[in-house]
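seq/struct pair 1
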Amino acid sequence: MTAIEAATTDDLDALVEQWAALVEGQRRHGTHLLAAENRAAARGVLGQRIAADQLRVARDDDILGFATFYLEDGLYDQDATRGIVENVYVEPPHRNQGIGSRLLDAAETELEARGADTLAIAVMADNDAARALYESRGYAPHRVILEKPAENDTHTNPES
């Protein structure tokens, strides 16, 4: 059975590759992130998540997927401690086998154990499969970000 466990620094190369695959997959849903151009930054962030025990992997012989998470902190006091599930990714051949749900379970369990009162996860608006999974788990829209292209010297709004 696939184990869900804390990632180690030995996993970092594989995790950077999976993060890049996640970003490439999200391009069709409208993400502005660029995989190749952000590999070094992703490596740094993933390394920090590993060091802070904020990254879980699904492991068979290889890493089949991962989830990153953290407790939100910021400049403003809030009336709840929010746990953020930052990424959930499963390699395409291993999807629809419950691995993503198990990774999400692990992230949620860790966040609750660390004091989260509420949990949040971001999803691209037209990523219907991910939205369906998260909504089936009780996640509901909390904040909606609207976006439009800016008109400037290098870009013209196609709607104009």
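seq/struct pair 2
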Amino acid sequence: MQDKEEERSLTSVERKLNQEGYTADFVVTDGRLHAMSDDKKTYAPEDVTIVDFYRFEGESNPDDMSILYAIEAKDGVKGTISSAFGTYADTDVDEFLKKVEDLGKNLVKGTK
């Protein structure tokens, strides 16, 4: 059994998600989501679902918080996107994901 700290590290969560098929690294540019490996294909908020998310706090500084989202696009592309949480949040990412949630595609945790 893994130690709880190890289980919740960003690296271990990313590894677990990669094994589950979340292999694309997403970014938000001009209000659209796209995989870094394919700049030509982009997604609007209505094209994606937030499958899960994980929050991480810095060991010594509560301002060092980040959040990792597991996302699936309607065409089956699965990947992750991360942002600082709170003060240092990426506003482009936050605005995009807020639109996804506002469209009624809130977290569908526990489904595959």
